[in-house]
Amino acid sequence: MNTPEQSQLGKSSAYVDQYDASLLFPIPRATKRAEIGVTGQPVFFGADLWTAFELSWLNTKGKPQVALAHITVPAESTHIVESKSFKLYLNSFNNTRLESADVVRDMIRRDISAAIWHGGTMQASVGVKLLLQEQFDAEPVHELDGLNLDRMDIECSRYQPAPDLLSATADEAPVTETLVSHLLKSNCLVTGQPDWGSVQITYSGPQIDQAGLLQYIVSFRNHNEFHEQCVERIFMDIWTRCKPTKLTVYARYTRRGGLDINPWRTSAPGALPPNVRTARQ
How many Å apart are CA 147 and CA 169, to the nearest integer? Predict the structure, then answer.
């Protein structure tokens, strides 16, 4: 079983500039999910929305081509792909001659799909969309919609995940609301490097205490975990302690090494959010 410590994270790496799918390093989702009480079929659905800003290859004449890539990884996959390995994989296209952007797209879809199921039965492939130079100007920037929790003048003193800070009012009429904070910060599980993010929480059910929710979000500040794992932890803590009837948690993390990873988890299947970057991304 691959573990994060076996990956290239925090290690000196040679950058390969000829296509090499073996650079991808899958990590099982199950290990971290078990820590938050998720075994078997999760109570959530969702996907991880990636944006790759550093993608280039050579056309058949040797001329460099550049593109952005939007990649959608289904949350039901058995594995995630460690982000540094994905960046190394993308760099392996740099001096590889390929016929077209469509060929590059299909290669990425095939390779990432194989990695996230890591030899198991593939139940769903990743989605891949390439944006070429002429499409760059149409890429929007938009902040997450919702009531901003950061407006509250609260005291914070806990910087490891503290689900006991979460509470909801069960004896009043249920509500439906969307809450947003830009104060989410966690650290890479292996290197400890900071990961900065914004989080959007949409729910129906007993009204969640907003001050406690913001303190809870801040409590991730010194926590070491990958983006996908943090969002699933947030989802399960709110689901368990606040008991909403519906819940969606969506985080957008700032990019590192030309890649951002934006996990989205929801209690009921539905349309994916648009993969639109925020100003900090």
Answer: 18
Does the predicted TM-score (pTM) go above 0.70? Answer: yes
Question: pLDDT > 70: what percent of the chain?
Answer: 95
Question: Among residues 188, 237, 242, 260, which one is catalytic?
Answer: 188
93 and 211 inside one domain: no
Tell me phi and psi for residue 210, to 5 degrees.
-70, -40
Shared domain check, 239 and 176: yes
Catalytic-residue membership of 237 = no
Residues annotated within the binding site for substrate are: 81-83, 227-228
Which residue, of 138, 173, 199, is where some domain finishes?
Answer: 138
C-alpha to C-alpha distance for 173 and 185, rounded to whole angstroms: 32
What is the distance between the alpha carbons of residues 83 and 71, in angstroms, rounded to a whole number? 13
Paired sense of beta strands 147-148 and 175-187, if any:
parallel
On whether residue 33 sits in a domain, the answer given is yes
- Of the residues 86, 120, 138, the one at which a domain ends: 138
**Three-class SS of residue 127?**
strand
- Same domain flag for 187 and 249: yes
Nearest by Cα to 227 from 281, 166, 164, 165: 281
Q: What's the structural domain count of the chain?
A: 2
Domain harbouring 209, CATH code = 3.30.1130.10
Which of 20, 111, 137, 195 is an active site residue?
A: 195
Annotated catalytic, 195?
A: yes
Residue list for the binding site for NADPH: 83-84, 256-257
Report pLDDT digits (tens) over 98-119: 999 999 999 999 999 999 999 8
Angle between helices 227-242 and 210-218 (to 10 degrees): 150
pLDDT bracket for residue 122 (50, 70, 90):
confident
Residue 275 belongs to a domain: no
Host domain of residue 62: 4-138
Q: What is the pLDDT of residue 7?
A: 47
